[in-house]
Every structure is written in C-alpha cells, then in structure tokens.
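Entry type: protein chain
Record version: 2
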Amino acid sequence: MTTNGTLLRAQDVDLLRSHPFAVTVSIDGGADLQNAQRPAASGGDSFALLRARTRALLEAPGQARLSARATITRHRLDLTDRFDSIRALGFPEVGFSPLRTGGDAEGPLRGSDWPEYLDALTGLARRELRRALDGGPIRLTNLAVALKQLHRGASAPYPCGAGAGYFSVSSSGTWYACHRAIGSPTYELGDSRGLDEARRARFLTDRHVHAQAACGTCWARYLCSGGCHQEATARTDSSCGFIRGWLDFCLAAYCELADRHPDYWEAEDRGAGSAAIHTREVSP
C-alpha cells in the first residue's frame, strides 16, 4: 500500500504491524521541501504531521516492510540531502521517481534535465555501492531493485505486473491495471464481479515491449521493458537516454559487487528493494 502517512491512526498501525504489508510512504525530503512540494490541505506543516503519524510504525514495524518514495521535479534535482533527511526519520530504504507528467506544467523533467538527474542518482548510488562493498545493505531502492533483477537474470517484456498479476481497486469497486491510473477509462479492466478478459488481453498486447516502435533497436529493451505504461506518452529520447545511462551504471556496479562479494545476494532480502521488487514500482 502507498500512503502519505498523515492519516495513519493507531488501529491502522496495529493492522499493518500484524501482517506482511509492503508500506510505501510518499515523502519528498526534509521539512522545507516536503511542505513546499506536498503542502497540507489545511495549510499546516505536512512534514510534522507525517513524522508524528508514522513514528510508531517506523519504531516498531512488526511484519510490515517499510520504504519511502520521493518524487523528483525539475525544480530540485539534488538527491543526497533529501535521501539523508528521509533516512533520518527512520525509513530503512528510499526510492526516487522523476516526474514525467502532471498537473504542474513546470514540474516534469525536460530534455536538458535528464543528464543532471542521472548524475545526481549515480552519485548517490556510488555512495550506496561503497556501503555494499564494505558488506552493508543498500538503502537506495532504485539501485537495490536493479541489482537484484540483474542477479536473478531478469528479462521481461513488461515493466511491471500491471494488468497481468497486479491490479488496483478504486473505492467504487472498479479494477484498474495500475494504481497511478485509477479513474482513467484506458486502464479500466473490470470490477469486483469479474475482469473483462478481452480488454485485459488488448491492454497487455498493446503494451508488450515488441509493440513499442521506439524500443525495437534499444539494447536495454528487456531490462527497461518500455518503461512505465502510465508514463509512456511522455517518453523522449532524453528520458530513454537516462534509462540507458542508469542501467549502464547498474551493470558495472553489479559486476564490481559480484567480483568483490560473490556471495552478497545469498542473504535473504539483502539490501533494500524487497518491498518494491514484485511490482518494480520504483522506476529508474
């Protein structure tokens, strides 16, 4: 489940602790950035509210697996400070996702922003790689997920399980292929009475990586798998170049880690990303 954490009650925390929920909390950084980018509807301090409502779960998660997810806009492409600020709250792992589409026309990354974002992400990833080379866990979800997939020999025609083994249900009972597209007729695949198998088959056929013309000659197509379905309309040469650059870094990092610590991944759930890897929710 994904939450901004501000409405968690004691009974919610008890429920989450009692079962193996994967809980992702949306938080974009420290107090100044969080309050600016995710202001409370009341006009109050959303960071303080999030911190207060998530403290009990972070201190004693029980069976729940916790992670934080931060949205990156072109207004602030630095990552290290916000990573450290989020980690300071007690989150065991942090993942970043760049804004590609949205209501804020000035927020989504543009062509010239992608190289800068790649530098920021790989810079933070190098710091986490040094931790791994010293035997520590990787706390950057983007890196941990990528390395785990490489270790497992992942090669997929789809970027996630949307519409296949993964669905999201709206409050009205309508089933959608993706939680990010609830309310969009394009992603509507049925309801709690049953799936529309014809729509589901058409959805999957149209989004297979072989159906994406831009992916046909790309060396990364079976690792990227065409990218997030919901963001595909915003795909550009620059954003695809970022993905190739990130995967190139991850391949080199995996080789270095495998050479120096060949048994690193033998420990179950070593590093971060265990909560996200089943849906590949955190994109590069």
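Comment: The longest strand covers residues 65-72.
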